[in-house]
Amino acid sequence: MATNPPARQGARARFAPPPRASALAGWALLPLRLFLGVTFTYAGLQKVANPNFFNSASPISIHAQLVAAARVSPIHVIVRHLEGLATPIGIVIALAEIAIGLGTLLGLWLRVAAAGGALLSFFLFLTVSFHAAPFYTGADLVFFFAWLPFVIAGSATRLSLDGLVAARAAAEARRGSPEVVAVPFAQISRLCGHYEHGRCAVRDGAPCEASRCPVLAEPSFDEADDVHRRAVVLATASAALVGGVTVLGAGVGAVVGRSLGGAAVPLAPNELGAPAGTRRARSALGILLGPVKDVPVGTAATFTIPATGDPGIVVQASAGVFDAYDAVCPHAGCTVGYYAQNHVLACPCHGSQFLLDNGEVISGPAPHGLAKLTVVEGPDGNLYLK
Ligand code: FES
C-alpha cells in the first residue's frame, strides 16, 4: 500500500483543526453562520437591486465610494486605479456577496466561502472603514474577525451540505460516518481494549497519552484521499448548482429592484463650476464657487474646497438660505449626500445622518458633526465660499 510522505502528513496535521474544535464549532457557530449568511446574501441582493449602485453619477454608487476611498484609504494608490473599473468591481462584489452568503447558509464549501468573506471584509475595511473612529464602529473589521472561526473550523457536519457530501462520499467509499464527535479521552481508554494501568499495550506498554493514541490516529491518507476526492466531486457539483442559483437570484433581484425603483437615494447634486478662467477667483466676498442658479431651492450642489481638496456640499434649503459643509463623513471618510425626502445630510457608507441646519449628528456611528462652511450669495448671482 502506498504511503504518504511524512512532510505531507505533517502539513495536513498542522492545518487541520483539532477534532473537538470542529465538533463544538458545528453547533456553537450556527447562529453566527446564519447571521453572516443572511447578511452577505442580503447585501449582495441589495446591491444588484439598486440601479444607483452601478450608476456612476449617483452619490451612492460604487464609483462614488471608490472615489471617496481613493481620498482616504491607506491603499489609495491601488484604489485610484480601480475607479475606472467601478462597475465591474461592483458586479463582482455583489455576486461574491451572494455566493458567499448562500455558501455560508447552506454550509457548502464553507471554509472557502469564509475565506472569501474574510478577504472581502478586509478589502472593505481598507477602503471604506479604515478611518472609522472609534475603530470598533467600523463593521468591516468585525466581519473580518467573524469569518475567521469558519476559516479555521469549517462547518463540521452540522446542518450543512459539506456534512451531507462528506457522509455520502464516505458511504460511497464504504467508510464509516465522517462525523466528528467529542468523547472524553478517559472513555477512549476504557473502550480501546489496550489500556492497562496507565499504559498502552499497542505501544509496547508506553504511557497512555491522547497525543499518541493509535485509536485517535488520522486515517491513512490513501483512505482519506479517496473519500476526499469523492467529496470534492460532489461538492463541486453542488457549488455549480449554487452558482447557477446565485446568478439567477441576482438577475431576479435586479429586475425586482428596478421595477420597485431602488432604495432612497440622495439627490444627484450639480457640480458647481465657476465661469472659465475664474474658478478660484477670490474677491472681498470670498472664493467664487459658481452661479446660484445651479443650486435650485430644495437641492444640493458639490464643489471642491480649495484649502483642503475635500468635497464640499451646499444646500439651498429655502430661498436664499444656504447650508454648506465639508462633505467628508467624520466616521470613515465617505462623502455625505443630501436626502431631500428626509431633509437631512446622510452618509451612504454606514448611515450616519446629520442635521441640515448645523451639521450635528442625528444618528449613526459618526463621532461628531460635519464641519460647517460659510457660503454667501453675491450681488452678481454667484455663490462665494468665505
Ligand atoms: S463613513 Fe461611516 S457613516 Fe459615514
Description:
The protein has helices at 6-15, 19-28, 30-49, 62-72, 76-82, 86-106, 110-127, 139-153, 161-172, 185-192, 221-260; strands spanning 195-196, 199-200, 206-207, 270-271, 282-283, 286-291, 300-304, 311-318, 321-326, 337-339, 344-346, 353-355, 361-363, 372-373, 375-377, 382-385. By secondary structure, it is an alpha+beta fold. It folds into two domains: 6-161, no CATH class; 270-385, Rieske [2Fe-2S] iron-sulphur domain (Rieske Iron-sulfur Protein). A five-stranded mixed beta sheet has the order 4-7-8-9-14, with no helix packed on it. Strands 5-6-16-15 form a four-stranded antiparallel beta sheet, with no helix packed on it. Strand 5 and strand 6 (286-291) form a beta hairpin. Helix 6 crosses helix 11. The N and C termini lie far apart (84 Å). The model has no long low-confidence stretch (mean pLDDT 81).
